[in-house]
UniProtKB/TrEMBL annotation:
Native organism taxonomy: Bacteria, Pseudomonadati, Pseudomonadota, Gammaproteobacteria, Lysobacterales
Organism: Rhodanobacter caeni
Family matches, as InterPro entries: DNA-binding_RecF, DNA-binding_RecF_CS, P-loop_NTPase, RecF/RecN/SMC_N, RecF_2
Name of the protein: DNA replication and repair protein RecF
Subcellular location(s) of the protein: Cytoplasm
Positions bound to ATP: 30-37
Amino acid sequence: MRFERLRIQGLRCLSEVEVDLGPGINVFEGPNGAGKTSMLEAAFLLSHARSFRSGARDALLQRGASELAVFAELMHGDGRSRRVGLGRAGSPRWDARIDGEKAALGALVGECAVVCFEPGSHALIAGAADERRRYLDWGVFHVEQGFLETWRRYQRALKQRNALLRSAASADELFSPWEAELAQAAHTIEAQRQRYLEQLTPMLAKSAGNLLPELGVVELRYRRGWPEGSDLADVLGESRARDRLRGHTTVGAHRADWALAFTHAPLREHLSRGQEKLAALASLLAQAALFAAERGEWPVVCLDDLASELDHPHQQALVAELQAAGAQVLLTGTELPPALAAVPHRLFHVEQGQVARLL
């Protein structure tokens, strides 16, 4: 898929911006603080209903603005076109639209697919498990029908069980129906995640082999969130007393995690910061390639501050791969990265929240 036009209102320093994007590489260059990253953030919002910047929810709305909105005209690989939008005004809840009609957030996210490599991407490898679960579940959502509904069932049951854990008057028999629902949904989610990881692993091996050949063969190690060989309903019952003390559910699908282990770096602590970034990039490229294999089109690829995140050889290799795949790329930098000097691209200058096409 690709964005043909992107319109942004009230997002950080971008008051009113509209750009026509090319089908290939689109470069946003300009000084620091000009609003370049916010251009990528707008595209990412349409695909994830959240920012890729940590703790950014309350900072998204421009100071003094009453409304935040992102609109896009997008084209799918099969020729289908869609007009999509996401916004909010006076409420923390997002309002999603598709072709002018109000839509569920899940439907909007299903239409848009954006992956992003940015300065904080190393957290996918070295950060908290939450980021890795989001990565995993976004991928599963796009290839497994029914995942979203099951995930919502799980979250509803988890919320109810946590409320009972925090209530001193809750009798044990009140837990059983919610624990049964939680376990049933968790086992479905687990099966969907496992299928996805089986498909992802060979693509990850290829991308990691290209970016980190010095580390040897990569292995993706997955931990599901409760002991192997155990039924979650039984584990929930056994952990009830401990969970009461902690006030939350300590086992389940919401506690899953994964890690990469290389032949010559079996623990993530063995990786340098640069290698963490390349491992995160390999994971994102593998996810994008699997999306393309399943859906017949690449997601949009956002690369924030490429020149400072990757050295020149890795920049060249990445650009060549994305060109060969036919992916639309949105890329930022304080100047045009050297790796793009001889590559066809559309160039925009960003300064003080204004965007102008140069080439």
